[in-house]
Amino acid sequence: MEYAKNILETIGNTPLIKLNKLTKELPCLVLAKYETFNPGNSTKDRMAVKMIEDAEADGRLKPSGTIIEGTSGNTGMGLALAAIVKGYKCIFVISDKQSKEKIDILKALGAEVVVCPTDVEPTDPRSYYSVSKRLGEETPNSWYVNQYDNPSNTKAHYETTGPEIWKQTDGKITHFVVGVGTGGTISGVGKYLKEQNPDIKIWGVDTYGSVFKKYHETGVFDKNEIYPYVTEGIGEDILPANVDFSIIDGFTKVTDKDAAIYTQKLAKEEGMFLGNSAGAAIKGVLQLQEHFTKDDVVVVLFHDHGSRYVGKMFNDDWMRKMGYKE
Ligand code: PMP
């Protein structure tokens, strides 16, 4: 018989899938690392389990402990799956701009969810950074995950996602393009790929309203770059320790409108029903087309599933209300 001993054993080894219609004007092969095949429907399952295993190993997380994290949903999903299998409780702190589906899904997996306002400074006591930190200090036998600065996040992608992409492309990958939030995906995959072949270019996709692109180009943390935006999962108003700027060759910024429109296009033109950051990522690839030539192999990573966005990017009333559609 061939079976997984539990749901966590099905994480990773996701397929690489060729894009056809959306990329037809590009000279090169464009392949999607399709992370929704993970059991929690996102790449974050990989780092969630790795962060828990590393915390168990060095005693930060103890038997029947409570896992506390500020999460926009996908990390929470991965942590919740692992908590069920391994016997922990979860409290997640989430910002109020996240879709209702994401909150309901976390509750469905037995987690407690605390909702905080988005439009306050990270240092404000109401912000989701502050609230998750405080709950971590106040809750007995708890462990505050902190995916932004937790090195196990990057390590998970260095140990699994990066090697998978290298093997699946037979070492022929020339460019890796991915949305950046905590930075775990780009830094882990990017470091592994550059160690195999330093000529591979690593591109981050950023949003308008986020600090990454300007910081990478100038070394200046410019507060004027920070303002509310709609795109989910990528961009930050802080510099997480997991963003390794030294392995990133450049960033391209995608507008909220384009990210939303390309999320719909991926579904309608490629049959790829994916989340909002996948729309941003594929638009990022198209914006970078002048960097690609005939023999290039571009891999773009798609983080999560479309089901979490049915009330937003897949809802035409919402798209019209936002001014993204006539
Ligand atoms: N897309 C989605 C949907 C996400 O949830 C995240 C994680 N915040 C990202 C992209 C960015 O990935 P990372 O945190 O590894 O930079």
Automatic annotation (TrEMBL):
It comes from the Bacteria. Keywords: Pyridoxal phosphate. InterPro entries: Cys_Synth/Cystath_Beta-Synth, TrpB-like_PALP, TrpB-like_PALP_sf. It comes from Flaviramulus basaltis. This is Cystathionine beta-synthase. Residues 8-302 form the Tryptophan synthase beta chain-like PALP domain. Its cofactor is pyridoxal 5'-phosphate. One of its GO terms (biological process) is cysteine metabolic process. Belongs to the cysteine synthase/cystathionine beta-synthase family. Transmembrane segments: none annotated. The keyword Oxidoreductase does not apply. PANTHER family: CYSTATHIONINE BETA-SYNTHASE (PTHR10314).
